[in-house]
Write a structure and sequence with these properties.
The structure holds 2 protein chains of 2 kinds. By secondary structure, chain A is α/β, with parallel strands linked by helices. Chain A has a domain at 11-89 and 168-174 and 201-269: P-loop containing nucleotide triphosphate hydrolases (Rossmann fold), CATH 3.40.50. Helices cover 35% and strands 24% of the residues of chain A. Chain A has helices at residues 58-66, 105-115, 120-133, 149-161, 179-196, 207-213, 247-268; strands at residues 15-25, 31-42, 47-51, 73-78, 81-82, 90-93, 167-171, 199-204, 216-221, 226-232. In chain A, the strands form 2 sheets. A 6-stranded mixed sheet of chain A has the order 6-7-8-3-9-10, sandwiched between helices. In chain A, helix 5 (179-196) links the parallel strand 7 and strand 8 (199-204). By secondary structure, chain B is mainly alpha-helical. Helices cover 76% and strands 0% of the residues of chain B. Chain B has helices at 2-11, 32-52, 64-77, 81-112, 114-129, 136-143, 147-171, 175-183, 188-225, 231-240, 244-273. In chain B, helix 9 (188-225) packs antiparallel against helix 11. The radius of gyration of chain B is 27 Å and the shape is flat. The two termini of chain B are 42 Å apart. The relative contact order of chain B is 0.10. The chains are: A alpha/beta, B mainly alpha. The A-B interface holds A 1, 66, 68, 85-88, 91-92, 94, 96, 98, 100-102, 111-112, 115-117, 143-145, 163 and B 176-177, 179-186, 190, 194-195, 198, 275-276, 278-279. Bound molecules: adenosine-5'-triphosphate (ATP) and magnesium ion (MG). The site of magnesium ion (MG) has 3 residues of chain A, from helix 1. Residues 58-59, 171 of chain A line the site of magnesium ion.
Chain lengths: 269, 279
């Protein structure tokens, strides 16, 4: 399974979507387009956020990049290879944590390792490493039902990190959390990302979250989902919360909102 | 009243975090178990009184002590009941085990593969709705009145409850968890083993529990209808000769078997499958 992956090549570490279009079948059987000629190219070791109104196809695009969905039209190339299905060099963090309710935190983390073919002793080592990294010490043997929402998300992130992916795909990982927990986790994610700079695609509805974390923000429009704008975030790294008052931040925020507002109104109306 | 509360609240931080306030245990005789036990004892006492005081003819209803007398004779003196128990247990055991194996396997496959489900579902639903004991005359024609016609009836009585429940469990597996496993490169077999089977486990156990009652009914009716052995046969014979105490003893054996199986299942579930229960 792992042997098929190419030798680690930093310059290959990028994500390219070329003219990706996709349709789903509605319940009455008629097709509905959710992605319309989406083309993006993400630099190695960059952090990119996807912003867009609800239902515009952000999750679908992430699934296409992961290989969970084969797009009807277009190609996806990740790390120099055409995507034909999920692979051990990409890991997903899901919006609703998606932990197995009958496995403890540690077992959930090791489950991902096991599926990508990491031997048991190594997966234990990695799980404990991820548990320490995500501040889950003392909760390793708790079932998800015994964990708070924030803790569950930490486990979901730990599960993704412990397969040591080159690419991290995160679908609104903090969307279901309260504002304080969310900010704590944003800062932690920043630190973790700074340490080895994986190529990250991060879906969010929060403008501030996107600005805080990203090198680049991709704005999607809806009906059908398309790329509306790609904007670079010209804030120095390492980032911190204090930059919120920076004029670059506030101007960017205003600009993003102007781009998003008409889309939001269309969705709401 | 309010003023007192406020004072108490203010006083709390000053007190050392020592012993928790004494928890008052409700008296033991108000617990659910104690009430249930008392209820059973009272029921038996009334039963005994009604029958031994002569309000009811012994032919219509034997007293609890009369049933115990018969049981003592059957189990320790004449020892006539054992071969019958053995026959009934064999029929129930073979039929039930086959029903569990077939029900779970078919349920898993039919739950996962829509086309296979489409092929078999009409027959499953029709047979599930048919009172399987009604097919007994046909099976006796095929297999005679020995063990195998009864095994077949027991099997049919139990298998569909297990199959239908297992299928529901498989189909109810959370698609998000399936997708999660797939995102971590799980094969179809891994999805089945690690997501679908554990998700279906509570449903499989529920199906087996449902099947216990149906299996016992099948054994009883099959022996009642055509047999010269088995506890059901003993009950029929006893009824025909107005040996009411013996008849009730036979029926109680079925009750005991049902309760024992159900308890055993609960135990197995707690030991091995407790985690898979819905959270
Ligand atoms: N499996 C599916 N079958 C049919 N339609 C689907 C399916 N998955 C998604 N859709 C539809 O495709 C559109 C895009 O969905 P998607 O989940 O990608 O949106 P999103 O941008 O992630 O939305 P949100 O911000 O609410 O998460 C929606 O209209 C959704 O209803
Ligand atoms: Mg989404």
């Amino acid at each position: 399974m792992l042997s098929a992956a190419p030798a680690m090549d930093v310059h290959n570490a990028q994500i390219v979507c070329k003219d990706v279009s996709h349709w789903f079948l509605k319940s009455d059987g008629t097709p509905i387009q959710v992605l319309d000629r989406v083309s993006i190219s993400l630099e190695p070791h960059s952090f990119t956020s996807l912003l867009g109104p609800s239902g515009c196809g952000k999750t679908t695009l992430l699934r296409v990049i992961d290989g969970l969905i084969r797009p009807a039209v277009g190609t996806v190339i990740v790390g120099g290879e055409a995507v034909t299905g999920p692979s051990a060099n990409r890991a997903m963090v899901f919006q609703e944590h998606n932990l197995l309710p009958w496995k403890t935190a540690q077992e959930n983390i090791r489950f991902g390792c096991k599926l990508v073919g990491i031997p048991a002793s190594e997966s234990l080592r990695r799980a404990n490493e991820a548990i320490a990294l995500m501040g889950l010490n003392g909760f390793e043997h708790h079932l998800p039902s015994q964990l708070s929402g924030g803790m569950k998300q930490r486990v979901g992130i730990a599960r993704a990190l412990s397969i040591h992916p080159q690419f991290l795909l995160m679908d609104e990982p903090f969307g279901a959390l309260d504002a304080q927990t969310r900010e704590v986790l944003q800062i932690e994610l920043l630190k973790i990302w700074e340490a080895d700079r994986k190529t990250v695609v991060f879906v969010t509805h929060s403008l501030d979250e996107a600005i805080l974390l990203s090198d680049r923000i991709v704005i999607m429009g809806t009906r059908p989902g398309h790329i509306k704008a790609v904007i670079d975030v010209d804030l120095p790294r390492p980032r911190s919360d204090d930059m919120r008052a920076d004029p670059v931040w506030t101007n960017l925020r205003r600009h993003l909102w102007q781009l998003l507002k008409p889309e939001m109104i269309e969705v709401a109306g | 009243m309010n003023g007192q509360n406020t004072q108490a609240l203010q006083a709390t931080p000053a007190a050392p975090a020592a012993a928790p306030p004494a928890v008052v245990r409700p008296p033991w005789w108000t617990s659910g178990r104690a009430i249930s036990a008392a209820s059973v004892v009272i029921f038996l006492a009334v039963w005994q009184w009604v029958t031994s005081a002569g309000y009811v003819e012994p032919i219509f209803l034997a007293s609890p002590t009369a049933i115990l007398d018969v049981a003592y004779d059957q189990f320790f003196v004449s020892r006539e009941i054992y071969p019958h128990i053995l026959v009934s247990l064999t029929e129930a055991f073979v039929g039930f085990v086959l029903a569990i194996v077939a029900g779970v396997l078919l349920g898993l496959v039919m739950g996962r593969f829509d086309r296979l489900r489409a092929v078999f579902e009409p027959f499953v639903m029709a047979l599930y709705a048919t009172p399987s004991v009604a097919l007994l005359p046909l099976f006796i024609l095929w297999l005679g009145i020995g063990l195998w016609s009864k095994v077949l009836i027991v099997f049919l009585g139990g298998v569909f409850a297990i199959l239908v429940n297992t299928m529901a469990g498989v189909r109810g597996a959370n698609p998000k968890l399936i997708e999660t496993a797939q995102a971590f490169t799980a094969s179809e077999a891994e999805v089945f083993a690690y997501i679908i089977l554990p998700s279906a486990m509570p449903f499989i156990v529920a199906g087996i529990r449902l099947a216990i009652g149906r299996v016992l009914i099948s054994v009883f009716v099959a022996e009642l209808y055509a047999s010269n052995q088995g506890v059901g046969f003993v009950v029929t014979q006893a009824a025909a000769s107005y040996a009411t105490a013996l008849m009730l003893m036979g029926i109680l054996l079925f009750t005991l078997a049902g309760v024992a199986l159900s308890q055993a299942l609960t135990l197995i579930e707690d030991l091995f499958f407790g985690r898979f229960r819905e959270h």
